[in-house]
Structures are given as structure tokens and as C-alpha cells.
Hints:
The chain is mainly alpha-helical. 93% of the residues lie in helices and 0% in strands. The protein has helices at 2-10, 14-67, 70-116, 120-145. Helix 3 runs antiparallel to helix 4. The longest helix is centred in the N-terminal third of the chain and has 54 residues, at 14-67.
Amino acid sequence: MTDILYLLTNHPYTPTIQQAKEQLEQLEEEHSELTENTKLLADDLECISDELDQMKKKMESKSSSVTDATPLVEIRAAIQRLKKENKEMDIRIGVLDYELIQARMAEANQEYSTSRGISDDDEEESDDDNEEEDEEEDDALACMAE
Length: 146
């Protein structure tokens, strides 16, 4: 057995085997470090890929909302409705203004008639004529409104 031991320790390839073992251990350490580094980089890549996907989704939703013309159409329709309502209100104001002037004129005529002593029968005939004229003017204003 000593011969075997002698041969193993004094054999010409013994230093080469030890060097190879040391080199193997060093390579295994480097391999484990590189494997760990690769794993960390893969995790970083996965996080960055997730962030990229989220940003793509945000950009896609924003671009679809920018190209969506529905709000613009709704605003235009609302403006048209407001313009129509404005015209209707202008016509109503005109009619009410006309009625107010007629009422003031009737009141002034009544005061004038009272001060001159005209009877109520004469005034009623005058009112009937005024009512017919008022109806004709209201019909004309209604036609203009349409």
C-alpha cells in the first residue's frame, strides 16, 4: 500500500490533477456567480417588461380617447340646442314685450277714456276691435317663431 501511496504522491501527473481540481473549483465558483447574476438580470428584465406593457396599455387607452369624437359630437349637439333655445327665448321675449306694450296702451286708453268721460259700452267695442288685432298679431308672431 505504501507503494501506491508513493506512486500517487510522487507521480508526475499529481500536480496537474491538483491544478485541474483547483481550476475546476474556480470555474464552478465563477459559474455560480454568473448564474446568480443572470438570474438577477432576468428578474430585472421581467420587471422592465411589465412596466413596458403597462405603459403600452396607458398609451393605447389615451390614443383611443384622443381619437374618440363622441365628446365633440355631444358638445356640438348641446351648442345647437342652446342656439335653438336662445331663438325661442328671443321670440318669447318679443311676444311678451309686445303684450306688455299693448297692456300699457290699453291702460293708458282706459285712463284717457275715463278722463274724457267715454262710456263703458263704447270702450267694449273698442276692446273687441283691439282683441281681433291682438289675435292677428299673435298669429303672425307664431308663424315667425316656427
